[in-house]
Specification:
The protein is mainly β. It has 1 helix and 19 strands.
């Protein structure tokens, strides 16, 4: 029974979250004014106000017998303001919709993960110190997922609501031509939903089904970043930034109801565990003659090694690379082009793949600089 509970929780916790951003702004403002801000305090350092609309489409493999599609549309409003010498404020509102689906070669049930939410960020700075806060409000969760391994097939679904909150601090040091930024931020997800999990044994088709609920459960992760910008706002500029983000392992006691193919049922209590998770990444940008080029990478690792039947497997890692080009088409209209590729991999000790996913994404942004 413990095997079912432990395996379910990573799907439960991370299944509802929207595709993570790779654009940076963990400590310092991007040279591309349309990028999403990871650390809300960074909004206070922005000096360009914009209205932009973006669309991103991606597809790739999920295992050897499935395909995934990901579509994101985004409206982004950034308002930068200076109240007085050394006092700045910033506002960012991002309305984002994501549709993620997985289809299988054998005609199995198609996965779905549709999310619609709005990030509302406010920030202010006095001298070298900036503080910021982001709130999405409650949004709907209605997801399903099918996962296959050597020993079993897992079918799960979540229905309910969630809320994302971000808070952060950023410090800026330097003068007109060189600025150094350091930061710390926290991301808190609060979830409430009903969860159903069915595991079918590959050897004899026997199954067990688990039903449970979570109410106002919090998942927190923290991160920090260091960034540096060379050049003045009206000149050619260059930016380098790195970050690290961590989420500790989570254990949570729940009550669950179980049925099985033998026709028996019972109610019990148990422990759900979500594995430790870490991210490490960076970005390099250059703005030359009003053309901005951005290149970045991110490595995500989930410490979820274990045993599947009699086979041991290692941790799960995801490596992503992205690039972006942003330029003025005719003032005040600007165009942005975006590309991203990522690979998720988890191996058994004998070398076969337990998890394997690829995703290639391309996007277009049209913005109006206010």
């Amino acid at each position: 029974m413990q095997k079912i509970i432990t395996y379910a929780f990573p799907i439960l916790i991370w299944g509802f979250t929207i595709t993570p951003e790779l654009y940076g702004q963990w400590a310092s403002p991007s040279l591309n004014p349309t990028f999403f801000v990871e650390n809300p305090a960074v909004v206070a350092w922005k000096n360009v106000s914009t209205i932009s609309f973006s669309t991103i489409y991606g597809n790739g493999y999920k295992g050897d017998f499935a395909y995934q599609d990901n579509t994101i549309t985004e409206a982004n409003f950034v308002l930068a303001g200076e109240l007085g010498p050394g006092i700045n404020t910033g506002l960012q509102i991002v309305d984002k919709k994501q549709i993620y689906t997985t289809s299988y070669d054998d005609g199995s049930k198609e996965d779905s993960n549709n999310t619609s939410l709005q990030y509302r960020t406010g920030a202010a700075s006095i001298g070298p110190l900036a503080l910021g806060y982001t709130d999405t409000g409650n949004y709907e969760i209605n997801n399903s997922s099918l996962n296959k391994s050597i020993s079993s097939t897992t079918d799960s679904s979540e229905k309910g609501e969630a809320k994302i909150e971000r808070s952060g601090i950023s410090l800026r040091f330097g003068g007109d031509k060189i600025n150094l930024f350091t930061s710390f931020y926290e991301v808190k997800n609060t979830v409430s939903f009903d969860y159903k999990l069915k595991i079918t044994d590959s050897s004899d088709s026997s199954w067990q089904e688990l039903n449970t609920s979570l109410n106002n459960f919090e998942i927190k992760q923290t991160g920090y970043g260091i960034g540096i910008i060379f050049g003045k706002p009206d000149e050619n500029r260059y930016r380098i930034e790195v970050f690290q983000e961590n989420k500790p392992k989570i254990d949570h006691n729940i009550t669950f109801y179980i049925t099985n193919s033998a026709g028996t049922s019972n109610t019990d209590t148990g422990n759900l565990s979500d594995d430790e998770k870490s991210k490490l990444g960076g970005i390099i940008e250059a703005n030359i003659n009003e053309i901005t080029v951005s290149i970045g990478t991110q490595l995500e690792k989930i410490y979820d090694s274990g045993v599947d039947g009699t086979y041991k497997y290692g941790n799960t890692s995801t490596q992503s690379f992205f690039s972006s080009l942003y330029f003025t088409m005719f003032k005040p209209i600007c165009i942005g082009l975006y590309a991203n590729t990522s690979e998720k991999l988890q191996l058994y000790n004998h070398g076969l793949r337990r998890q394997y996913e690829t995703l290639d994404e391309f996007g277009l942004t049209i913005s109006y600089q206010i």
